[in-house]
Amino acid sequence: MLIKQVIPFSSCRVTYDCQETGLKCTDLFWVTDSWQHEGPQYDCVLIQGWPKSSTFFARVLGLFSVLLSGQTYNLAILRPFIRKRRNKVTGYIELEEVSGGGYEYCFAESIICAVDIIPPTPNNGQFVVQDLVDGDAYLRFISMK
After folding, report:
1. Which of 127, 8, 123 is nearest to 57 (CA)?
2. Please, are residues 33 and 40 in contact by the beta-carbon 8 Å criterion?
3. Rounded Cα distance, 100 and 135, in Å
4. In sequence order, what DSSP letters do the residues of the chain get, joined into one string?
5. I need a surface site. Which of 76, 94, 126, 130 has the fewest CB within 10 A?
6. For residue 125, what are the contacts with CB-CB under 8 A and spacing of at least 6?
7. What is the pLDDT of residue 112?
8. What's the pLDDT score for residue 78?
9. Are the C-beta atoms of 120 and 62 separated by less than 8 Å?
10. Distances in Å between the alpha carbon of 101 and those of 11, 58, 81, 84?
11. Residues of the chain with pLDDT under 50
């Protein structure tokens, strides 16, 4: 196996079936250490895991394509979140970062859609999935306990 070329990129378009309308929708997410010269921008996504019925949330830290034996593979470097139960008071899905700096790779085609994740605040030490941002997010995440 000879890797011929590695090309990093800073954004990615993901097309998915909207749970609300059944139409094809497109998300654009960013991965850069200098977003509009104001600091880093590492967007979060929902990933199709294995087995196929499993999904997980992650922050995308890098995107690149690799040319290997004449075939191009689009890959992502991820920092996965641990999904906790929905908060009994707020109803939101809470997440926590994997301790010890756990990173994973995945094929970019495994990314289902971009996700709004609110960082911890002084009043709440957990990351929170913003599932009320649109109808698709609400319907996609409502079954997650």
Report:
1. 127
2. yes
3. 35
4. --EEEEEEESEEEEEEE-TTT-SEEEEEEEEESSGGGSS-EE-EEEEE-SSTT-EEEEEEEEEEEEEETTEEEEEEEEEEEEEEEEPTTT--EEEEEPTT---EEEEGGGEEEEE-EEPP-SS--SEEE-TTSSHHHHHHHTT--
5. 130
6. none
7. 94
8. 95
9. no
10. 23, 13, 11, 18
11. none
How many residues comprise the chain? 145
**Sequence ranges of the domains in the chain:** 3-141
Q: Which amino acid is at 75?
A: L
- Please give the pLDDT value at position 53: 75
Say which CATH class 3-141 falls into.
Answer: mainly beta
Name the pairing type of β-strands 44-48 and 111-115: antiparallel
Q: Which of 90, 78, 103, 89 is nearest to 129 (CA)?
A: 90
CB atoms within 10 A of CB 143: 6
> Please, are residues 120 and 92 in contact by the beta-carbon 8 Å criterion?
no
CA dihedral for 75, 72, 51, 139, sign (positive or negative): positive
Structure tokens given for 88: 């009994």
